[in-house]
Amino acid sequence: MADAGESTGAAGKHVAGGSAGTAGRHGVRESAVPSGSHVAGIGVQTKNVVEDGRPEEGFRMLRDAGFSCADFSLNYYLTNTCLYRMERNSFFDRSDQELEAYFSPHKAGARDSGIRIHQMHMPYPVYVPNGKKELNDYLWQVVAPKSMRLCAFFGCPYIVVHGLKLSRQLGSEEAEWEWTERFIHTIAPLAKELRITICMENLYGNIGGHIVEGPCCDGRKAADRIDRINDRYGAEVLGFCFDTGHANLAGIDFEDFITTLGERIKVLHIHDNDGVGDLHQIPFTFTKTRENKASTDWEGFIRGLRAIRFDKVLSFETAPVLSAFPDGLKSEALGFIAKIGEWFAGEIGEREV
Ligand SMILES: [Zn+2]
User: For 152-246, where are the E strands, in sequence order?
Assistant: First the structure.
């Protein structure tokens, strides 16, 4: 399936959100994907930037910082911390029409700032282990399909979903995947109808203080499963979201993983950590020792994306950066993240690492 909303520039390069690398209306860069790059845009989460009362201001701030795309943080309307307490709020009790009315200012704000909603995150978990049937039924039957329809409302082609974390209870990763696949089948027909690709994300687990691989950490298995399900539906209903921070925590070989998944990778979650906690910070922040290189294998990341000729959006999942930095530095922090995106775009498009 073609990426809805991506336009092809005059030179055959994908560009997004206006004229690449040119000065914007307010003297700031609107989009700065370097020439020679195949990347379609640079994005970041809306969380901690776009606020419900005045969403247009947040989208303007993203545009002014140098972003052309956004990852709409739908998951923050029904958070994992709430769900893991076996609780839920009433946000998704709204009808589809009420939800669309709620998010109309967000959609208009993004459009007016030339920001494309390239991806969004479905609330997670979609299944609470040991949770009440009533809660889990609500997540599968109400939250998931309403999220899919909101994704379509935003004209967003990709929605990121977490696989179920059940391998410990069920005894194997295969049994765990069966449950995840059962969930996928509940929304795949809707994905086909709405022309949305559901993107599975590599996760990690924590067993007694040890970080372990979570769902979707085996690239070969993930590739086979995606192909098999897409064949069954005759559409690209399933894709992959590569999360750099989770991959670092689980010790995944970036280049091998990315090249194994290849064009099945539709979406990125770019962020950094110290290899111990899922901190969602700015790339190149952490090192292993004072003299050492970055904690995360950014060179492998670049080599992998270059090898698969990644032509989608470099999207950062760095919302916690914006609560760590003072509010007065928010636009500067965002600008720096966008600048790193531009640098990645240049590296992926051109030189050998
Ligand atoms: Zn992520």
Answer: 158-161, 197-201, 204-207, 210-213, 238-243
Residue 146 lies in domain: 21-349
Ligand 1 mean position to 110 CA, how many Å? 22
298-307 and 254-261 helices, crossing angle to 10°: 20
Q: Please give the tally of structural domains in the chain.
A: 1
Between the CA of 245 and the centroid of ligand 1 the distance, in Å, is 7
Phi-psi label, residue 213: left if phi above 0, alpha if psi -120 to 50, beta otherwise: beta
| Residue 9 placed within a domain | no
Is residue 344 predicted with pLDDT exceeding 80? yes
**124 alpha carbon – ligand 1 mean position (Å):** 11
Question: How far does the centroid of ligand 1 lie from the alpha carbon of residue 5, in Å?
Answer: 22
- CB burial of 159-174 (b: ≥16 within 10 Å; e: otherwise) equals bbbbbbbbbeeeeebe
User: Position of tokens 């700065």?
Assistant: 32
pLDDT digits (tens, 9 = 90+) for 283-322: 999 998 887 788 999 999 999 999 999 999 999 999 999 9
pLDDT in the model for residue 246:
98
> How far from the centroid of its chain's Cα atoms is residue 154's Cα?
15
- Domain with residue 151: its CATH number is 3.20.20.150
- E-strand ranges in 150-263 read 158-161, 197-201, 204-207, 210-213, 238-243
Cα 321 to ligand 1 centroid, rounded to whole Å: 14
Structure tokens that stand for 144 in this block? 């998931």
Copy the structure tokens of residue 171.
């005894």
Distance in Å, CA 162 to ligand 1 centroid: 9
Look at residue 278 and tell me if it is in a domain: yes
Q: Is the pLDDT of residue 16 over 50?
A: no
Ligand 1: centre distance to CA 317 (Å):
6
Distance 201 CA to ligand 1 centre (A): 7
What pLDDT digit, counting tens, does each position of 165-189 carry?
999 889 999 999 999 999 999 999 9
DSSP assigned state of 294: B
Give the start-end residues of each E strand in the chain. Answer: 7-8, 14-15, 41-45, 69-72, 116-121, 158-161, 197-201, 204-207, 210-213, 238-243, 265-269, 313-316
